[in-house]
C-alpha cells in the first residue's frame, strides 16, 4: 500500500521545494501557483481518487452475483481519471481493478483488446467496452446494478 503513495509524496515534496525557492527568491505569487499545481498533481495520482481496487477474478465473481460493472484501470491513465471524475459518487458502485497490481486483471484486458492493455476497459454483463464515454457508463451500465 505504501508504494501507491510514493509518486504523490514525491510530487508534493518537489512542489514544496520549488515553491520554497521561489518564495525566498521574491516571487510568492508564483510560488503559491506552483505549489497548487504540484498538490493537484499529487492528489490526482493518489489512491484517494479511485475507489479501492480488488482483484480481477474477485471483481468478475462479484459482478456475476450483483450485476455491477467492472472497470479495469491503471494509475496515471488520463482516460481512467476522466471516467472516475465524471462518474462522481456513482463510481463507488463499480468494481475497480488496477491492472498494474493484478496480473489476472491485466490478462482480462489483453484478452478483450487484442493483446493490448488499453484502459479503461469496462465490463458490463460480460461484454468489454474499451474507453467508453462516461455518460454511457452512467446512463447504460449503472442502471443495470441490481438493487439489494
Report what the structure shows:
- By secondary structure, the chain is of the alpha+beta class.
- The chain has two domains: 43 residues; 89 residues, 3-Layer(aba) Sandwich (Glutaredoxin), CATH 3.40.30.10.
- The chain contains six helices and four strands.
- The protein has a four-stranded mixed β-sheet.
- Helix 1 packs antiparallel against helix 2 and helix 4 packs across helix 6.
- The longest helix is centred in the N-terminal third of the chain and has 19 residues.
- The two termini are 31 Å apart.
- Keywords: Membrane, Transmembrane, Transmembrane helix.
- This is Glutaredoxin domain-containing protein.
Question: In terms of topology, how is this protein built?
Answer:
Elements: H1 6-24, H2 28-44, H3 56-66, E1 70-73, H4 78-87, E2 95-98, H5 103-112, E3 121-124, E4 127-130, H6 134-141
Amino acid at each position: 500500500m505504501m508504494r501507491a503513495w510514493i509518486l504523490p509524496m514525491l510530487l508534493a515534496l518537489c512542489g514544496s521545494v520549488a515553491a520554497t525557492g521561489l518564495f525566498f527568491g521574491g516571487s510568492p505569487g508564483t510560488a503559491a501557483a506552483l505549489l497548487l499545481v504540484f498538490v493537484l498533481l499529487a492528489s490526482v495520482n493518489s489512491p484517494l481518487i479511485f475507489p479501492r481496487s480488488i482483484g480481477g477474478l474477485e471483481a468478475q465473481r462479484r459482478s456475476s452475483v450483483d450485476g455491477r460493472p467492472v472497470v479495469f484501470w491503471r494509475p496515471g491513465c488520463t482516460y481512467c481519471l476522466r471516467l472516475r471524475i465524471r462518474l462522481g459518487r456513482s463510481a463507488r458502485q463499480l468494481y475497480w481493478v488496477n491492472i498494474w497490481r493484478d496480473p489476472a486483471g491485466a490478462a482480462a484486458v489483453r484478452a478483450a483488446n487484442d493483446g493490448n492493455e488499453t484502459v479503461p476497459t469496462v465490463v458490463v454483463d460480460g461484454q468489454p467496452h474499451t474507453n467508453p464515454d462516461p455518460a454511457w457508463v452512467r446512463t447504460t451500465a449503472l442502471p443495470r446494478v441490481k438493487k439489494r
